[in-house]
Amino acid sequence: MKKVYFILIFFTGVITSQAQDLVWHTDVNKAITVSNKTKKPLMLFFTGSDWCGWCIRLQKEVLKTPEFTKWANENVVLVELDYPRKPYQTEEIKKQNGQLQQVFGIQGYPTVYFTNTSNKDGKVNFEGLGSTGYVAGGPSAWLAVANGIIKK
Length: 152
Hints:
By secondary structure, this protein is α/β, with parallel strands linked by helices. Helix content is 50%, strand content 22%. It has a five-stranded mixed sheet, with helices on both faces.
């Protein structure tokens, strides 16, 4: 039993070290500020992290890889909008995520939506660039789709 426990800790450490270079925002307003400063689009990741099999698969096969980490740091500001079944989010985050789900018309998970933002009259305007979900073929296949969206 201890041996399995040790392996799980080691495995988790590997994933964490690969993803340490990434900043996933959960507060969209903070992410918008970063996006406006860096002139990078937002990558909104709509996920059900604790119940959606395709979301978990997308994370494992793409979002937690070194290829994605390098690409994301160069191209986008990351925002995770989670809809978990287990109640661990603040009411503010739940409300924000629900509003964004409606704004973008999200019907299924995972959905990854790319958008630029601008501020007019004190309101945030989203300029949608496109969206994708799970793409088979690992990071290179997924990144080809993402590049097609953000580099139009």
